[in-house]
Amino acid sequence: MAVEANLGKVRLTEEEMRALVERHTGGVRLGVDEEGNYGYYKYDEEAGADTLVPFKSGGVRSIKLKQSGNGKYINGGSSIPNILYLQNPDGIRKITANGKITAYNTSSTGTQSYGLSLTLNGRRRDTGTALSLTVASVKTTAGSSAQVQQTVENKEIDISQFDLSNPIYFSFYINAKYSGGSIDMEYEIAY
To answer: Which residues contact 70 (CB under 8 A, 6 or more apart)?
Structure first.
């Protein structure tokens, strides 16, 4: 009587390992492209063949931050801004804004215009001096009870002039007596 024992194979060839992985992953094939990036194969109809799709490098690719609230001009010549700080902006590639700012006034007389603005502030890349970039602004006139609103949709904010080794911040500032406003803005920050 012959006795058979399957002790298994201690070392698999690359082809055997690939077949084993495909069998255990539902047919997904893994590989490495010419630049050394690991990924998975996917059929490309345009090329008429399987192509390697590299895995992402990992880490956070983008985050969303919200800036919202109300503000009012304080009698005596100042306003308390609503500020959103980005303490470590190094590595940011792009900032996209979506939302709205609304201005209203609290004066029932006069003809003066009142307003508010949303700015991105920081330091210039070339000189290190202060830099302020207006993202959105609105004005309303005294004697009017109307609210004026500006909607911002997928606005890419140009950050190329900012020194991103220093903090940057969004400031929602009410810049006239008797006015007030609100902000409801979301920023997508891509790294």
So the answer is: 180, 181, 182
**Average predicted confidence (pLDDT) for the chain:** 79
CA distance linking residue 141 with residue 167, whole number of Å: 35
Residue-level pLDDT at 144 = 63
Structure tokens at 34: 């010419």
Whole-angstrom distance, CA of residue 43 vs CA of residue 53: 10
pLDDT at site 133: 94
Spatial distance between the Cα atoms of 16 and 13, rounded to a whole number of angstroms: 5
| DSSP 8-state symbol, 56 | P
Which alpha helices (H) appear in the chain, and where do they start and end? 14-24
Coil, helix or strand at residue 105: strand
Other CB atoms within 10 Å distance of the CB of residue 191:
13
Q: Is the pTM of this model over 0.90?
A: no
Whether the per-residue pLDDT at 75 is higher than 90: the answer is: no
Measure the CA–CA gap between 42 and 51, rounded to whole angstroms: 6
Q: For residues 98 and 149, which has the higher predicted lDDT (pLDDT)?
A: 98
Which residue from 32, 13, 29 is spatially nearest to 21, judged by alpha carbons?
A: 29
Going by C-beta distance under 8 Å and a sequence separation of 6 or more, which residues neighbour residue 46? none
How far apart, in Å, do the first and last CA atoms of the chain sit? 69
